[in-house]
Each structure stands twice: as structure tokens, then as C-alpha cells.
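User: Reviewer 2 asked us to show a designed sequence for the structure in our supplementary figure. I'm pasting the C-alpha cells here. Could you produce the per-position amino acids so we can include them in the response letter?
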């Protein structure tokens, strides 16, 4: 998936904090409809994008449009493609907290699965914070 220039460009063009519409992505990126739809589906299956439908009015007609948002994992992949200097400090702080929550949630699930004491990890974490 990440070998494809089209899929990486799709990830780059989905905003961090709002949705992108399929029609806009097709128009903006210049790839065929088939290529964009194929990669959008792959990115949804991989857990990088969430897909939604939204009702809107166009020329007095009610229509449904597909929209996409980055998942927490998708945000991190997207941020790998952006220079940190291009992000506001508040956004970086928010994203660090999001990444930490995602990581801790995954580690806690692994601990429960393999019978590792969460209190032991809590102690390790506290030790790491106090050792500067």
C-alpha cells in the first residue's frame, strides 16, 4: 500500500481534523476514479481512514456523498509526511497525547493477553519519569 504514490497522496490530502470528500479527492489528485476508489477502500480496510456518508443539497437535489476522516493511526501516518515545523505547537502536544493513549491501550491489551502485570508496567513507567 505504501509503495503506491496514489495511496500516499490520498493520505496527504485528507486533513488532520476534518473530513475529505471522495469527489474532491478525485478532482484534486488527478488520478482516475477507479484508482482513487481502489486506494480509499484499501486505506479504510487498513484502519487508516474511516468512511462515512453525508447528505447534502446540490442544485436543489438531495444527494449522498462519501467522506473520509483519518483514524488515530491514519493521523500518525499523515504526520510522518509533514515537517514538524509546519505544525502548531498545540497540535503537536495533542498528537503526542493521542499517540501515547494509542500505545498504552495496545500495551495494556498485550499485557492482559500474555499475563503481564499492569502494576509492574506502571512502576516501570514511574521509574522512567523520575530518571532524567
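Assistant: Here is a per-position design you can include in the supplement:
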Amino acid at each position: 500500500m505504501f509503495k503506491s504514490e496514489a495511496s500516499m497522496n490520498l493520505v496527504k490530502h485528507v486533513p488532520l481534523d476534518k473530513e475529505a470528500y471522495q469527489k474532491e479527492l478525485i478532482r484534486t489528485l488527478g488520478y482516475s476514479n477507479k484508482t482513487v476508489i481502489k486506494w480509499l477502500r484499501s486505506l479504510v480496510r487498513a484502519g487508516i481512514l474511516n468512511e462515512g456518508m453525508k447528505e447534502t443539497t446540490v442544485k436543489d437535489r438531495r444527494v449522498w456523498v462519501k467522506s473520509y476522516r483519518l483514524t488515530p493511526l491514519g493521523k500518525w501516518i499523515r504526520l510522518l509526511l509533514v515537517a514538524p515545523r509546519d505544525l502548531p505547537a498545540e497540535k503537536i502536544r495533542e498528537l503526542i497525547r493521542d499517540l501515547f493513549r494509542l500505545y498504552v491501550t495496545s500495551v495494556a491489551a498485550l499485557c492482559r493477553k500474555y499475563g503481564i502485570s499492569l502494576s509492574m508496567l506502571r512502576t516501570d513507567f514511574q521509574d522512567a519519569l523520575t530518571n532524567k
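For the response letter, you might also mention the following. The CA atoms of residues 7 and 99 lie 22 Å apart. The longest strand covers residues 49-58.
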